[in-house]
Design brief:
- It is a single chain.
- It is built from six helices and eight strands.
- It is of the alpha+beta class.
- The chain has one domain: Transcriptional regulator MraZ domain (Chemotaxis protein chec).
- Strands 1-7-8-4-3-5 form a six-stranded antiparallel β-sheet. Strands 2-6 form a two-stranded antiparallel ribbon.
- Helix 2 packs antiparallel against helix 3.
- The longest helix is centred in the middle third of the chain and has 17 residues.
- The chain is globular, with a radius of gyration of 16 Å.
- The two termini are 17 Å apart.
Amino acid sequence: MGLIGNFDHKLDAKGRLVLPACFRDELGPSVVAAVTGSQCISIYSEKSWSAVIERLEELSVQSSKGDDIQRRILANSYKVEIDSMGRVLIPEKLRAFANIVQDVCINGKNKKLEIWDLSRWRNFMSESEKLVPEISALIPGL
């Protein structure tokens, strides 16, 4: 079915985040936390991360900037374990990039999760209201 839904959570003092059980079941015992584009942290299962690596390899062959893109993404990616309490330690570098201090929104986005600073997420959702007519036009019957 893919990862869907969103949940508001808090990081603890050590930078750990409890992943909702519905996401943990699909992710497996370890995940990859990465910065891949938007100002949020992406969380991938190992299987989904393997697909990202394949796409990055293809891009390196197809584009003159592919190696630089690959470097940027892989340098900002970390394998992290989900502990017995369902927590992952979000690396400080990734938290700083996404401007995450404590309050976050965890969003399912099909094959990955996105971890957003809660206020940034709320701003995005407010701004995205103007997309509703476009969504209806692009995806009739939704």
